[in-house]
Amino acid sequence: MFDKESIRIPWLDYGLIVVVLLLVIRIIYVLIKTGLFSKRVSIMDETASEIQTVSGTCVVCNKEVSERVKEYCKQHSNRFGGQVYCYDHQRGK
Hints:
Blueprint: H1 4-7, H2 10-34, H3 36-52, H4 67-75, H5 77-80, H6 87-90
C-alpha cells in the first residue's frame, strides 16, 4: 500500500542531525566546565616537565658532566634522544 519513499520526511533527517550536533556541543561544554579537560592538560604538563628533567651524569659511563654539557645535550635532544652524554661519548652519537 505505502512504499518506503512516500513515508520518508527529509526535513526530519536534517532536524535529527542538528539535535545530535547540539548534544555533542553540550557534552563538550559540560566537560570543559567541570574541568576534565584542564585536569588532563595539567597531568600532561607535569609528565612533560618530568621528562625534561635531565640528570647531570653520562648515561654510558655515569661520569658527572658539567652544566654546559648537560645543556648542550638538552638543546640537541634530537641527536642524543634526550639523554646526557659526556664529551667522550658524544662523539659516537
